[in-house]
Amino acid sequence: MVKKKILFINVFFLLLLIFSSVSVFAQSANNNPWVKIEKGQLWVLSSDNVTYVPYFIKGVGYEPMPIGRYPSDWGYPVGDPRSTNNNIYDDPDILNRDFSLLQNMNTNTIRIWKGNKTTVSCQCVNNGRFTNYITDASNTINTDKTKNTLDLANQYGLKVIAGFWVNHLTFDANNNIGSTDDNGNSLNKQQIIDNFVHYVNTFKGNRAILFWSIGNEDNYQAMNASGAVPRTSFEAVFGLTYGDAVFNWLQEIVNFLDYNGGIIVDLNSPTVLNILMKQYPSDYISILNILKQYSGQKLTSEQLAIWYSLVDQMSYAAHLAEDSNYSTGGKNYHPVAVVNGGIVEIGNSTDGATDAQLPNLDIWGSNLYLGKSFGTLFSDYANKSHKPLWISEFGVDAWSVKDPTGINNWGSSLLMDLGGVGIYDPITQSNWDVSLWNEILSNSSVTIGGSVMEYSDEWWKPYEFYCTNVNYSQYNNEISAGICNSNAKYFGFPSFSNPDGFSNENWFGLMNISKNPVAGAADIISPRLVYNNLQQQWLTNPWVSLFLNITGSGSGNIISSAALGAGLNCSFISGSSTGICLALFTKNEPVTLSFSSNGNNSTVTNWGNSSCANGSSSCVVTLDANINLNVIISSGAVAPTITAQPSSVTVMAPATVSFTVAASGTPAPTYQWMQQAPRSTKYAVIGKATSATYTTRVTTTANSGTKYQCVVKNSFGSVTSVAATLTVNVFPRITTQPSNKSVTVPAAAIFTVAASGIPEPTYQWMQEVPGATTYTAISGETSAKYSTKATTVLNNGTKYVCVVSNISGSVVSSAVTLTVKSAPVITAQPSNVTVKAPAMASFTVAAKGIPVPTYQWMQQVAGTTRFPAISGATAATYTTGATTTANSGKKYQCVVKNSLGSVTSDAVMLTVNPTT
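The structure corresponding to this sequence follows.
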């Protein structure tokens, strides 16, 4: 008995012993919430109803389901022979037995999964776990029994995490979310919210409630064919539906090894292959192929976002039910948690699970079965959410399967461990549970504690999964007979997180449970090794306590406690010269202690005694007569403040870029840089970017527009920097040069250039007229395309370039030439010529055109109108041979021609006079 008291007295209960006994009263008595969350920690109102003490969950999942029929009314409808009128949680013998053992273990919290009738007016038989007997319209259902149970828990120093079960999520064709009640009737979203509010209203006035929790791994229910593991594939191949243990295990495989990303790391590993081959020799190839098909895809769906949206609406409604001023800042309510399977979705905006998307949810609960260690869970979670993390389930069973080959068939071609050979292994169970607990304790800056799985063995599970189709009379033969009873001992399913590769859920208890030989008597409970070892571990709290023993010789008083800082507490016995001051604060919070006094005599013995240092177990301060002592316990904790924001940066690719934030805070804050890719709407964590300065990799143009911000955090708050934008500039480059152009008068010429660069470059066309030596800008021609005005032959030979520029520089295109074509035009007609024989005669024509025209002289045949060509007469001037008088009177003309046309000169006459 003495040992029990010594083990159980911790800081919380010392407070209770010092000040007063616990009383149960309506929470609104002084408008102080019984439980609050401050700086990431739980704080519970002490018995003086003024000060708060930090609270770390040393929890146990509590579900003492009996082996036999006393009382065995869990989950069965009215008329089922297995149901009775008894309720486990209303039996004072069972409750006193269990609560005493839990108290002795130094447990401070029990988690119950199902504290609700899912319908407000349900009068169906007890559906188990922690029934609330909600009063319906006719007041025929009594709430007193459950309230008495809560009062009893309070007397044993046990807080209750009150679960609200969400039964079988449904989604219609329009993705409207729903559920079912205990009788299989459909519930829409508003009915689910209303039922939760009714549950909260029923028990919100009981001091035993620590907080409300919604559901249990409902994120798995919300995954459908749009996620990585299509439910229909498993159903089609194996005839399985959601809720089957085998289906659940297949989902566990998908989460295995990299729970944070929801990705299968190595499906070909020996661990995976060995378990698949041994457990599913006929089906392992089919299973492996399905898993490989979806390897690397995250478990997500739009239905997850719908589920989490409902959770936030339920949280808001519960807060408003407890404090009508909640929407305007009221805080007089119990926190609300949701129990998630793993942490994959947490912090993912696509799944609707970021802190911003769940502003009314207070706590993330997570069922985690990851092996002997949580690995990087806590740092991973800290990068996902700033809400407190409650490890809602953790642990391992006390049964080790040694020969999984001798197993029996279970409802399909897949196999379960119903008949395997194994051994009782409480040592491994204890080692694993204690190791996991110590990790939880050492990460108290992230988590508010955990609930070990669980109080007693789940001997009912073989009945639920394997024996539901046998006749009731066989079931009622209890543990001593029947195929169900003979196989129950070995019930389990493959699990990578267990040391033997199997999760034997009917061996998870901290207590051995055995059938009582006395008919109708409660089962016999006895602690396992893990009970004793956790009992010792749970003497340690994740906060520091400081005791001040005040003594004196006169009438001095302890008069005040100042500058406590948010979340710190100090309570006093004052009015005499002797008293005790107890201060509690978290390990991560730096605290300073100082004293001052007033009165005629200012002497205080042991002033500044080193034994009063932070974290000492006790400190003695002696007062002289007539001295009032002012004890000042000051928090040095400061939430982070950003003193210098990161700045946007512009660089030329390729280059690295550094972003820097400056922040202050005590303790020194941590940093986590986030990035938002161009055209994205969400920020993603940058791995290993955890210092005040983040330097990018070598940049490319694809990085331009990326935004960066830093989350600065310590254990007393967090702040997010402004977003800084990375602009990656690229020197302009001409990708397509302009080309020479040729047009016919008076057509305009069009020149085009193509260029790249960041930012988008500008253009300026320049021209060099024929005969000039410099280029001049063409006014207004600032696009990639330049069209000249109507051309003339004077524009022929003009050269053009384009200057392409951005803020990084300029580049000049190749020079191109404009050719302006025109048809031939005779500018000087040939003239008649007179010569004396035998002199030669010359005829000349002048013409212009582009291209340069050709010439062909023609001579008229005498007596005709024909002018045939003169062979070889293809110059602008035609000279005859020696003339005679016979040539006199001949006529000549010239045809001037280029590719655009031809023109014929005037006909001219040759006159040849005789020689005199």
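Residues 563 and 634 are 5 Å apart (CA to CA).
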